Here is the input.
Amino acid sequence: MIEAVGLTKRYGAKTAVYNLSFQVRPGLVTGFLGPNGAGKSTTMRMILGLDQPSGGHVTIGGRPFKQLPNAPRQVGALLDAKAVHGGRSARNHLLSLAQLSGIPARRVDEVLGVVGLQEVAKKRSKGFSLGMGQRLGIAAALLGDPQVLLFDEPVNGLDPEGILWVRNLMKQLAAEGRTVFVSSHLMSEMALTADHLIVIGRGQLLSDMSVKDFISANSADFARVRTPQTEAEQREKLSAALTEAGGQVMPEPDGALRVTGLPLPRISDLAHEADVRLWELSPHQASLEEAYMRMTQGAVDYRSTADQKAGLMQQPPMGAMGPVPGHGQQIPEVPQQGFYAPPPPQPGQHPDAQGTPAPPAAAPGGPAPAAPPAGPTTSEDAR
Amino acid sequence: MTTPYQQQGAPGASYTSPIPVRNTHLGDALASEWTKIRSVRSTMWTLGVMIVLMVGLGLLTASLVAAADPDLEGQSVLSLGFSGVLLGSICVMTLGVLTISSEFGTGMIRTTLTACPSRGRVLAAKAIVFFLLVFTLTTVTTAIVGALQVGIVGGEPSGEDWFRATVGVGLYVAALGLLALAVGALIRHSAGAITIMIGVMLLPLVVAIFMFSESLRDVQEALFQYSIPNQIGVLYDSAVTTSGPTGWQPLWIVMGVTAVAMAGAFALLRTRDV
Here is the structure.
């Protein structure tokens, strides 16, 4: 059990973590998410007593880390795969850590076997790949057979086999009743591994709930409705009927409609009443990634902008395109937009959208690759 | 997993390791630091070069003296080991800095302090292991070199001379290395700390040599007297200056300075974020 109360860390004028309170419970894999620079690593360092909090406190099993009797037997941590002396062999590295906490040397060979590094145990870790470094770091964390485990980005650089192994390892460790606290940027991985999520942005707690609750609270589930493409008036009729019934309708560039606020059977009923045939009526469930993007879009510090390649174009279409998405953000319901093919508002790409919540029916935010079903297709069509 | 883990499953149930937990002490940290210092190549290189320099230069000067004129004008034959020790101590200072600053440089310090949150114990263990290793090696090497020099040149150094030229020099060089370790812990940067230590070692002497003004005569004299090469010379009774520290005094001086630097290193390591 890890418990943080009002945890705050300031570096000079910059506040890295502010008033963070959360609990990490045993028996569950708890994911720790947040954009780059959100304060995840700082928080983990404070849990381990490496950084002194400017305010608040954090305890493990009721005690600060530094006061735990034989701390490495209670808490294991992987903070940074490269935090080893490259000139030392993997086995000697682990041996020195084992000796520090009175762990017998045969346990070193044991954990080397667990992470699959027996073959290179005598090799200097300088030559290790990032994935091998991660395995060595995981071995160090497991060395003391601790009941609390912290992993900072454990799957970075691992091969698919290694990712699967880490996923199962986390689950197994949690199933044994341990407290497992994992930070990661790989949402798909977190969706498969974590039971509970703690999300921070700009050093503050954004969310602390189970993965299922998180997705349903932050997702933009919608229905995709497609009418026969040959008959444009049917589409108009349906979208009028749906809007009247209280739904929100967004056109997609390929002619489909994106409907939120109405359940699927109701959409079907309305279409039937309006005498409109449907070619498609499909539910679209948001992934953890989309939910995460929506939640953190206001808290992202480092954001890329789309490469418009305007300088390379002979006839810059920017004059036409530029204002439209901004305009569309105020009135996302305007269905005609779809014909001109500017993308549905993608708040991530416009600096003025920072911090303002996107309209409910908007594409689930972020740069293009973030939302596979809608994002890439729309922006490509736009060009 | 090869350990027999029980599947407890239910959330809320806490895990207890089948491996018994015992309290740790300084001895564990000493074992760990011994593993660390013997398992990196920089230790082998710096100490190897130190031994080669001490033996090589000691034998070279001894044979040159023996070939030319074995009259040492009252100097002990053991003082021929001086130049080897002077250069060898630079290797020791490098190792002293690297012992701690390589942990900061690689980030290993975070792993170490996670495995042992009592930071004072880690630094103390490092200091003890390093000091004993350097002291033993230096004392043994100077004794061997001294014996060879007596064999080549001849002469009968007194017991006091022998003691100061072996154990005394061993303690002095090890304390100098410990000072470097403390500076490494304060600076946390290998190149910076090594530069500072080389400066501390050589700069006073170099500055004093080029101090021509008459009004600075006293300063020049003090710089000569207390420069590290001269202090090592004092241990051999072959100092450049006639006044200043004598006998065992250089050892007390370097130990005092090292104690202050180590106290600073302890205080800062305790409070700083790593």
